[in-house]
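Lecture 7 notes: from sequence to structure.

We start with a single chain of 275 residues. Read the sequence below before looking at the structure.
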Amino acid sequence: MIEISTIARLTALLATFFCGTAAVHAATSDWVDNQGGRMRLVALAPDTQGHIRAALQIEPEPGWITYWREPGQGGIPPQITPAPGSGVTLARASYPVPKPISVGPVREIGYDAPVTFPLDLRVTGEAPDKLELTAFVGLCKDICIPFQAEYSLPLPANAQPTSRELALLDAAQAVLPEAPSADFAIQNYQISADAKSLSLRLTLPEAGGKAPEIYVTGPSGYVFFQQANAKHEGTTFSADIEIGKLPKDYDPKGKSWGILVVDGDRAMETTLALE
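Now the structure, written as tokens:
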């Protein structure tokens, strides 16, 4: 458990900012350093379909944390932004399984160890000869430091990745949550008429045991994880997720929300189409 003064964190957020520019060699940038850790970018040249396979590596210093795509009740979500006019867009950033982190009375969601975010980038026109993007993350301990780095990686069309770069990208992909399967899936779900709770019925890999961690991501900036009425019946688990407050005039009907279920050493991620 990490105890952090909320006042100190907010003061540091307003007062402290770090920005670095990374030099490059091959398809891997140099590390950009910060008081709370460091990060770098790895990218391959576009394939024949215009996909750029890349990853952002973040290594917090011991005792520091960084955040999942929805950081919980506090923290800073990662933001990865290709340079405007660069001819590249971010199709998807993927995130390994996070952990709940208690920060005083605040519950956050993130990582207290090195983490790599796989990136799926798309070329929108002619293949660029370099990849330019900005990464913005939060690193927190007794203070919280916004950490920004700007990258410019050459992407020559005939460049061959090193075995180390391929291994890094493959390893990052291998630890992502799995897709639903016969033994790990959402059986059914229903949001209440007042949008205050989401009822879930899941198939879990193992019978009994601890309740799984469940993270439901709604509109941007909202994540829900408080469980009520949890019940195990063999490999079936049911619970109500407390939704609480949503943005003013927000109607969940017709929206797609994300869900991550962590059960022991397995995790499953999918989307919920709300009706």
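The chain is about 10% helix and 50% strand. Keep this in mind for problem set 3.
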